[in-house]
Design a protein that fits this description.
Length: 224
C-alpha cells in the first residue's frame, strides 16, 4: 500500500464515529474516559462485549457483528490503515454493533475495565516462533494475565489459527495452567459439527490457506 493511500485512510479513520484512536499517554497516564463505559457511551446498550485482537482488515469483527446482532464487537489493531476497510464497511452497511480501536494489545487493561468483556477472539496471530519473539506471542502467560483482568468470570476465549505450532503451544500452556479447554480441533473444516461461527466466517488470508488445503485449527477456552 502506497504512503498516499495510507495517509488517506488515516484521515478517513479520523472521521469515522466507530473508530477510536487513544494515544498511549492517554491510556497509561490517565483514566481513559471510555474504560468501563463502552456499552453505555459507544453502543448505547447493555449487550455482551466481544473483542477481536489483532483484527487486521476487520473481516472477522464485521462477520461476527452481522451474525450476532445481540452482541457488541470491537476489533483492535495497531495498524489503522488495515482496519479502515472494516470500519468503512460497518458504516456503509449500517452495522451499529461493530467498532474499532487503534492501540497495542498489551495496553488492553488500560482500554477496558475489570469484568467489562464477555469474549475475546484471537484470529490468525503471528505465532512468533523464534525464541526472541516469544514475549509477543498473543497467548503467552503475560498476555493471558492481561486478558484475565478485563474478562468476566465466565468469559470465553477463542483462538483460530493456521499455525499448528500456535495451536499446540496454546493447548499445552492451557493444560499446564489448569485452564478449562471447552473445544479443540486441529482441522475445523474437515470435521463435522465444528462451531458455525468458526467455519462460516473467513478472512481473505484464510481463504488462501484453504485453497492450499492448509488445516485451520480452533480452541475455545476459559482462563478465569
Amino acid at each position: 500500500m502506497g504512503s498516499k493511500n495510507k495517509l488517506k485512510r488515516f484521515k478517513e479513520n479520523e472521521t469515522f464515529k466507530n473508530v477510536f484512536q487513544p494515544s498511549r499517554d492517554e491510556l497509561v497516564n490517565a483514566n481513559y474516559h471510555l474504560k468501563g463505559n463502552w456499552r453505555k457511551d459507544v453502543f448505547k446498550n447493555d449487550k455482551p462485549l466481544v473483542l477481536e485482537l489483532g483484527c487486521g482488515k476487520g473481516e472477522y469483527t464485521i462477520g461476527l457483528a452481522k451474525r450476532c446482532p445481540d452482541k457488541n464487537f470491537i476489533g483492535i489493531d495497531v495498524k489503522g490503515a488495515r482496519f479502515w476497510r472494516g470500519a468503512k464497511t460497518a458504516i456503509e452497511d449500517n452495522i451499529p454493533n461493530a467498532a474499532f480501536i487503534r492501540t497495542q494489545i498489551e495496553l488492553i487493561e488500560y482500554v477496558f475495565a475489570e469484568n467489562e468483556v464477555n469474549e475475546i477472539w484471537i484470529t490468525f496471530p503471528d505465532p512468533q516462533i523464534k525464541y526472541k519473539r516469544t514475549k509477543h506471542r498473543m497467548t503467552n502467560l503475560q498476555f493471558l494475565e492481561r486478558y484475565k483482568k478485563v474478562l468476566k468470570a465466565d468469559g470465553l476465549m477463542h483462538l483460530k489459527t493456521d499455525s499448528e505450532f500456535m495451536h499446540g503451544y496454546t493447548l499445552g500452556l492451557l493444560h499446564g495452567l489448569g485452564y478449562e479447554v471447552l473445544y479443540a480441533n486441529h482441522n475445523v473444516y474437515k470435521l463435522e459439527g465444528s462451531p458455525e461461527e468458526v467455519t462460516e466466517i473467513q478472512t481473505f488470508y484464510e481463504n488462501q490457506y484453504l485453497e492450499k488445503d492448509k488445516a485451520i485449527t480452533y480452541i475455545r477456552f476459559k482462563i478465569n
